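Quick one - first record:
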Amino acid sequence: MKEVVQMIRNHLEGILAWVNSRQTNGFLEAINGLFQAAKRKARGYGRSRTIRMVIFMIAGKLDFSRINPYVTT
C-alpha cells in the first residue's frame, strides 16, 4: 500500500489533469507513430526537408489516383 500511495503522490498532477480534461496522450502517440514511419521511409535522405515532406505525404493521406490512375497505394 505504501508503494501505491507514493505512486499516487508522484503522479498526482497528471491524475488531476486527466480528471479535468479526460484527454490522454493517445493523440501524441499517433503523431509520434507517423514521424517514426516517415523516418523509416525517408531512410538514406539526410535533409530534414525531405523527411518533413515524407511526413506530410503520410499524414495527409493524399489520393494520387485522381492524378495518375496507374498509381498503386
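second record:
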Amino acid sequence: MAILHADADITPTKPELLAAWVPAQPWFVGDATELEHVGAYRFDDPDGEVGMETHLVRAGGGPILQVPWTYRGAPLDGAESHLVGTMEHTVLGSRWIYDAIADPVYQAVLATTILTGGTHAELEREFADGHVEVMEPSVRVHGSGSASDAAPADVEVLRVLDGTVPEGDDVLTGTWAGVSDPVVLAVVRLR
C-alpha cells in the first residue's frame, strides 16, 4: 500500500525535478519545453523503506517516456552518478531521489512483480486529520507471470515507449487514459 501524504509540501516538486532531469538524459526524445505528465504507478518495498514511483511523460509530440525513480531517506551507497536530486518533504523529511534503474530494491521488486504476475501498489491518500481516501491509479500495470523457477538474469526497463519490444521471457505491461491495449514497459530475461 503506497501512502500519499495529501497535506505535505515537497520542494522542489516532482514536476520541477522531471523538467530538469529528463531532458538531460541520453534517451530523451521530444521538445523539452513541452514536458507533460501522463501518469504514474508505484510499487511497494516489502521492507517499507524505499518509495518507488514510475512517471510516464511526453515531450511535445514525442513518444511516451518512462521515468522510474526511487525515494530514499538517506543516500544510496555507490549510486552517486544515478542521483536525480534531493527534495524536502514536510512529512518524511529529506529525500534522495535516484534513477531506479540503479536501485537494487527497485530491480528486485520489478522482477518479482513481473515473474509473479503482480501489479502496481494500491494508493491511499492520507490527510493530516487522519482521514484516508483510496485513490485510483493513473497507470495500471501487470506482470505476465512465469511458470519457470529460473532466476532473472536481466531486467530491462523500456525508457522510450515507441512500440519497439525487446525479446524477453516475461513482461510488465501497462495501460492509462487513452491507452486500452497493454503496452510493454519492462522485460525479464531468465537464466
